Amino acid sequence: MNSKRALTLLHTSHPLAAPSDAELSIPAPPVPDSLAESAAAAPVALVKTSSAIATIDTPLVVRAQQGEREAFRGLFVRHSPGVRRYLGDLLRDDAAADDATQETFVRAYDAMASLREPSRLSSWLFGIARNVFLEHCRSKRESQKLLEEPNEECEPIDSAPTPDAVLLLAEADRKLAEALTHVGEPRKSALLLRLDHGLSYEDIAEIMGWSVSKVKNEVHRARLQLRTQLWHYLGGSK
Fold it and tell me: What is the pLDDT of residues 158-180, one digit of tens each?
């Protein structure tokens, strides 16, 4: 998750932000004005985009379920970057994330006939990816540690038109990576699915095996954790 998306997710007016503090009665510091400016520059149509992608996916899914390999290849090209990013955020190991992505799509290909709702392909793939991630943890006997302790991710710095902007984004990425170490699994997984990949609370609940209300609370608390850690960086003061 890059710094622009992270700053956007902390702004409660963003369409993919967690429920408001008033909804959950959880006190939180106000968001600085500079944060609103960052949010304005970030994408604000992920929900509509997801719907459009689902519409495009449906005929490909139907053809893939009929055994057409080129159709499945089209689905792979469309969805593998997002699945790879999600697994990379969780595993923090490029080689392991590559292998897990490949395993995810091998399983998806074998199980295409079981997908009853083609429009839900994206959440279905993320569910498979999460299972692959958990199996990877168990195979290394580190499942408990990874599920309970904070972990750390860092993405490449976004390109920018000026050196000053590059430096600012690099600093933001470093601050974000540091802040994410305070958000442990599985809360971070829910956060990434909601804010980095645009899944609905209902889809995340199905993937995580939680109730919708728990998903909303976990995403909200993760956002508060990030906001607290980034408070001074975003211009706040005690």
Answer: 444 455 555 556 667 777 777 77
